[in-house]
Amino acid sequence: CNVLLVFFQQNANGKVSRVIRIGTRKSQLARIQTDSVAEKLKRLYPDVHLEIVGMTTTGDKILDTALSKIGEKSLFTKELETALERNEVDLVVHSLKDLPTTLPPGFTIGAVLKRENPHDAVVLHPKNMGKSLDTLPDKSVIGTSSLRRAAQLKKRFPHLEFKDIRGNLNTRLKKLDEKDDFAAIILAAAGLRRMGWDSRVSQILGPEDCMYAVGQGALAIEVRARDEDILEMVSVLHDPDTVLRCIAERAFLRRLASLTLSPRCFCYSVLSSVSLYLTGAVYSLDGSDSLKETMQTSIASDNKVEERVDERVQRVGVTANNMPGPAQDASEKLGLDLANLLLSKGAKEILTVARQLNDAR
């Protein structure tokens, strides 16, 4: 049976407050992200007592194997979702890019917060300061834990070599600075910004160099779908523009991921006042074979229509009960249509070969 446990705390003055437990990974970046969410909730709900529960995930423990060899998504979410299922926490803060496009039964994304810069950043070894990926010497080694980045950058910068690097941000920067194994490493700009390390960014990679991962730069709050009070509480943190962009991106990925493991399909999105543009691509393992297309859809809503989305409705795992449904539906359809367009042009074959080659490595 399902039992919902609600905890309360009494302070020294005898005032009783509800206790909300927030699950997070233990890394410094994860804690910074979770603390920022907790601060927002505390401002909105000053009478609620928030407790942060740190956990170590499988992805945090396995540091000697490439992510592509052990599965890239649930590695950083499974333990957190298990705690959520067991009522050990009431909500979980994730980097949206870590969350699969299909969530386990009973869970939903109750809030997608305003996106930080979603692009990737180049961090140079101190001896290479002033250079860029274009100007680094031939055969310079670039560190990245992402097949997505490596596939695109191999094609864009064929004079460079790419090598896997694992660990949290602190660990990877230490490996870069204290050894001569890497001329530079590629990291998410959003993580560097949140850590206060903007000064380490030597170059931001635009979409013409490297398209970002689905959902990159956005934080998500995962909750139990049956907890309507928690869902209502966190839903005010939804950023409408980010929600629409990420629904389109996640729909694009889910369609392709249903056919094959797809860390080599990626995209970027642009939202204007009335239209959403989505560019998506698939790449072979070495970047030599690729497909890229762009589509758009109208997301203008009729302001005369007051609509409340059925809270039971999820779109690629996202419940946005305070946003118009038609715009969400259009965003989801855009991602699906773009994926189908790429599939009609041979994307499945590229992805299948890429997976076979990766498995054989």
TrEMBL record:
Any single biological process term in GO: protoporphyrinogen IX biosynthetic process
Gene3D superfamilies in alphabetical order: Periplasmic binding protein-like II, Porphobilinogen deaminase, C-terminal domain
Segments traversing the membrane: none
Known cofactor(s): dipyrromethane
Entry keyword set: Porphyrin biosynthesis, Transferase
GO molecular function, one term: hydroxymethylbilane synthase activity
Entry's family note: Belongs to the HMBS family.
UniProt xrefs under PANTHER family: PORPHOBILINOGEN DEAMINASE (PTHR11557)
Name this polypeptide is given: hydroxymethylbilane synthase
Organism: Oncorhynchus tshawytscha
Gene name in the database record: hmbsb
